[in-house]
Design the sequence.
């Protein structure tokens, strides 16, 4: 229950009209709303046609009168009536009027001495009990209080004891400014009281004439209010509305929903909701804004002003950081059983670097029912960063087997498996995640699998499946063929790799640099002898840049497959955009001349031709490139993705090869060709 008081020092600013419209707008957005009319001397809520009770209804004055007589709080349900027809989407609307307004009303009102009530009759506890009864009897999301104007005891109750927030409506003249200074100061002082109640303030300039401010009169008045009342910006502006509908007390959000006035009332509603961390929609929006804000600031960019303003409402000496911490604490308290909110709390803790707490919130979200692949993957990623590699690998397998995943989520999972040292990946091909991918997506994930023999066996199966699908376009078939040859070569299945690359007899002079190099490595593995013609083609194409391609044909989407640690992609419901296959394929056709893998491959090609000086230069360049940007890299020495340290070790072995020592690529180990090669040395 979030209590918001609408207060104005003077009448005539449209306070009751604003309250009614905001209340109805809340009810029509699915909230449960109670309107309480504490403007006892000039009540107005019950006078709106849509809010009138069937007959005069007892209200606040009668409630207090019965309390004074019995010295006990009466049942609040006798003083509240429900409004039908003003709500939608499950919302409800109740009114607690000021009173019946009959002959006894004025006498009863005059008999209430608020100071005596508080001093001698526990009036404070009566009001607290009233709030408790509101909460228990109606379970409202929002209670909107129409306060008495001026400096009065009732105004103090409405602006300090009852509310979580106060909407200060004013017309920007000197009389309002003089009256509001003390009221605003008193409200802010509540935060310094022993109970430390921080009340959110919304400043709303109301009944503003819609005229050109040629002499900047309004601008000067606005500046004076801002400086005197200490606010950063107005919550809303309600313009003067010239319409006879005001005489009929029309509820604009109900009767004229497309009018400017209705739009301004809805904006005020949204501003009130945004500061209420008991409101699920507001809490989720706040955390998403905070995630976006912290993400930008963390990267060194300027803080987005609009997001920043939504995050905090400066309250005197309360810092923005304190406001944010208080709201997060409220969210944690209010939504302990909401998996979606718990996921966002985990994301915020992750952004702060508090991995243990992030994992705790994730575990709770999953226990509460969020067993989505996204949640399971994020948990696995955090486990990995906490050093629990086995838990991370197990978590990815659970996510992949739990149901369909988006392409980007599958890539994230494969990154985690790689970082976690997973070996056996054969289970992946039968997982729900793999079965949910399109043929194009199967081709695109295959490079991410090639970091272990088990992964390469899975890649072979998935690529074979993709190539057997008639929906796969010709361009993607070529990519699939290249990636399949890599996996087969890495597994020592050289003859199959050659059959994939050279399904038909080809002229060596027509081969791409990719096919020439990978064909050379597969034939070397099969025969034990480096094929001079194919390696010569590689070297020739290196000197003709327009014809060159990267050797590995790895699909490079950003650098996701190389990230260390993998990048976590928090997902909070809603589909990811479909992958653009053509866009994803383009990068492999671009020559990445500075990539460490490229230099490494050229070193092997030049060694095979006896160009030892050039081979030494290229392996030095490969080492330098790897040191300059440490990342997982495809190594032609193993024919799989390897860590930076393993890539450096592979380069050292290639140096031994260049120096004439009897070493051979590791992917050839154990083959008959490798044993034969040990008895010979390259030309």
Sequence:
């Amino acid at each position: 229950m979030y209590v918001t008081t609408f207060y104005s020092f003077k009448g005539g600013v449209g306070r009751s009209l604003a309250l009614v419209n905001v209340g109805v707008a809340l009810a029509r957005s699915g909230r449960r709303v109670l309107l309480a009319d504490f403007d006892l001397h000039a009540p107005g809520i019950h006078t709106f046609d849509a809010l009138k009770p069937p007959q005069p209804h007892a209200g606040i004055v009668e409630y207090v009168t019965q309390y004074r007589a019995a010295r006990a709080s009466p049942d609040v349900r006798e003083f509240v009536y429900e409004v039908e027809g003003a709500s939608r989407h499950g919302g409800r609307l109740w009114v607690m009027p000021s009173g019946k307004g009959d002959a006894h009303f004025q006498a009863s009102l005059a008999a209430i001495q608020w100071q005596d009530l508080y001093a001698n009759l526990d009036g404070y506890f009566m009001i607290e009990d009233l709030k408790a009864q509101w909460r228990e009897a109606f379970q409202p999301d929002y209670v909107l209080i129409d306060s008495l104007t001026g400096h009065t005891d009732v105004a103090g109750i409405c602006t300090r004891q009852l509310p979580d927030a106060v909407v200060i409506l004013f017309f920007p003249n000197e009389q309002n400014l003089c009256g509001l200074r003390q009221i605003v100061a008193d409200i802010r002082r509540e935060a310094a009281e022993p109970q430390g109640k921080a009340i959110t303030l919304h400043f709303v300039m109301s009944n503003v004439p819609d005229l050109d401010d040629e002499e900047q009169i309004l601008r000067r008045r606005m500046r004076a209010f801002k400086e005197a009342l200490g606010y950063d910006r107005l919550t809303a502006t309600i313009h003067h509305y010239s319409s006879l509908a005001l005489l009929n007390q029309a509820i604009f959000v109900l009767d004229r929903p497309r009018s400017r006035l209705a739009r301004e009332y809805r904006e005020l509603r949204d501003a009130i909701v945004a500061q209420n961390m008991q409101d699920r929609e507001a809490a989720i929006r706040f955390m998403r804004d905070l995630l976006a804000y912290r993400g930008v600031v963390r990267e060194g960019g300027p803080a987005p002003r609009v997001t920043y303003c939504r995050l905090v409402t400066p309250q005197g000496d309360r810092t923005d950081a304190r406001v944010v911490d208080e709201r997060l604490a409220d969210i944690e308290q209010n939504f302990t059983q909401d998996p979606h909110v718990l996921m966002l709390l985990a994301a915020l803790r992750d952004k702060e670097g508090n991995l243990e707490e992030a994992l705790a919130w994730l575990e709770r979200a999953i226990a509460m029912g969020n067993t989505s692949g996204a949640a399971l993957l994020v948990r696995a990623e955090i486990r990995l960063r906490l050093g629990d590699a086995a838990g991370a690998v197990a978590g990815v397998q659970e996510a992949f087997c739990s149901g369909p995943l988006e392409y980007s989520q599958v890539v994230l999972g494969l990154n985690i498996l790689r970082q976690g040292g997973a070996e056996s990946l054969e289970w992946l091909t039968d997982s729900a995640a793999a079965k949910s991918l399109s043929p194009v997506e199967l081709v695109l994930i295959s490079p991410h699998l090639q970091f272990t023999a088990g992964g390469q066996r899975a890649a072979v199966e998935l690529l074979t499946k993709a190539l057997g699908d008639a929906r796969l376009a010709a361009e993607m078939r070529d990519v699939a063929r290249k990636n399949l040859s890599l996996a087969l070569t890495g597994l020592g299945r050289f003859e199959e790799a050659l059959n994939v690359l050279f399904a038909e007899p080809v002229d060596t002079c027509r081969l791409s640099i990719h096919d020439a190099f990978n064909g050379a490595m597969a034939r070397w593995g099969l025969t034990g002898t480096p094929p001079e013609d194919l390696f010569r083609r590689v070297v020739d194409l290196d000197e003709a840049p327009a014809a060159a391609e990267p050797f590995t044909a790895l699909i490079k989407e950003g650098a996701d497959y190389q990230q260390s640690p993998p990048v976590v992609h928090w997902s909070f419901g809603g589909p990811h955009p479909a992958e653009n296959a053509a866009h994803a394929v383009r990068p492999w056709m671009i020559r990445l001349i500075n990539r460490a893998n490229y230099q490494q491959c050229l070193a092997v090609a030049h060694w095979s031709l006896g160009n030892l000086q050039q081979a030494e230069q290229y392996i030095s360049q490969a080492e330098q490139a790897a040191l300059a940007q440490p990342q997982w890299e495809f190594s032609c020495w193993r024919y799989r993705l390897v860590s930076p340290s393993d890539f450096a070790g592979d380069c050292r072995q290639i140096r031994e090869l260049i120096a004439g020592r009897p070493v051979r690529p590791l992917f050839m180990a154990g083959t008959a060709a490798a044993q034969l090669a040990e008895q010979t040395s390259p030309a």
Summary: Confidence is low (pLDDT under 50) at residues 297-301, 303-309, 547-569, 571-594.
